[in-house]
Amino acid sequence: MITRIVSATFALVIAPMTVVAQSVSPERGALVVVGGGRIGTEILSRFFELAGGKDAPIVVIPTAGEDSAYTQACTCLNVLRSAGATNLTVVHTKDPKEADTEAFVAPLRAARAVWFPGGRQWRLADSYLGTRTERELRAVLERGGVIGGTSAGASIQASYLVRGAPQGNTIMMAPGHEQGFGYLRDVAVDQHVLARNRLNDLSTVLARHPALLGIGIDEGTAIVVRRDTAEVLGASKVFIYGGRDGTDDGKPYLTLTPGARYDLGARRRIHPE
Predict the structure, then answer these.
(1) In-domain check, residue 102
(2) What string of DSSP letters covers 24-42?
């Protein structure tokens, strides 16, 4: 049995927020955080661009899915392969002991990009938190690569994991399953927000944890994050909870549409000059 190591990237602070901007995203690399549903070419094209092209080595980790095993021909590759990716490797286990081995992480050491398909985010946390795999994932960013994911693969990128309960995805806060990979520090990410009528759900999380920044992303939509700047791409909208701008009239969130940019450290919208 492996004792889970609590990652230093998980810094859930319940004290009141200060007004000093802080680093939220990794210093190097980029994140592509997709709210589920159909992923448009503009999102995939940006992911490939950040990876270094469609021929760049990309690792796909489908562990959020229900299957116990995935082959190198699994349907989890279809989205990237149909968009033109040529160098894809599937890496998967549900055993943290295997995830902690040198042999398992070898493909990640050669990767320029990682992609997390959808499913249930707690499966990713249970398999990889505190292992060499988690460390090698962060190393992809440290050498300037990109990590992307959709649905469960979006929520896992935040420090606070919403909908992490194995019992069901309607439970927003689940003790023992509240830690994500922490690429977005002091952030909670929800997905399928409009498509599944989830607009008010992040408000319940921030009521309990007011230091968090909540980001709700609808289907077919993404934020691309570099150096604390999040740019909205895709077909729908992104919703910000706990920021310092005014919220929508009578709502607990600020709505961002495609093309909008947001400073995650300052927690303010970046207005065009």
Answers:
(1) yes
(2) -S-SSSEEEEE-SSPPPHH
Taking 70 as the threshold, does the pLDDT of residue 27 lie above it? Answer: yes
Cα atoms in the Cβ-side hemisphere of radius 13 Å centred on 87: 16
Q: What angle do CA 29, 96, 68 make, to 5 degrees?
A: 95
Of 64, 191, 180, 40, which Cα lies nearest the Cα of 118? 64
Does residue 116 fall inside a structural domain? yes
Q: CA-CA distances (angstroms) from residue 17 to 164, 202, 249, 265? A: 25, 18, 23, 12
Whole-model pTM: value is: 0.91
Q: State the Cα–Cα distance between residues 234 and 165, nearest whole angstrom.
A: 28
First to last CA, the chain: 55
Domain span including residue 102: 30-270
Residue range 87-97, pLDDT digits in tens: 999 999 999 99
Q: 18 lies in a domain?
A: no
* H helices, E strands: number in the chain: 8, 14
Q: List, as one string, the DSSP characters of 119-163.
A: S-HHHHHHHHTTSHHHHHHHHHHHTT-EEEEETHHHHTTEEE-TT
Name the domain count of the chain. 1
Strand partners, 187: 213
**Single-letter code of the amino acid located at 73:** A
Is 187 in a helix, a strand, or coil?
strand
% residues pLDDT > 90 (the chain): 89
CATH number assigned to the domain comprising residue 218: 3.40.50.880
Do the strands 221-226 and 30-34 form a parallel or antiparallel pair, or are they unpaired?
Answer: antiparallel
| 262 in any annotated domain | yes
> Would you state the structure tokens that stand for residue 66, as one six-digit string?
């229900």
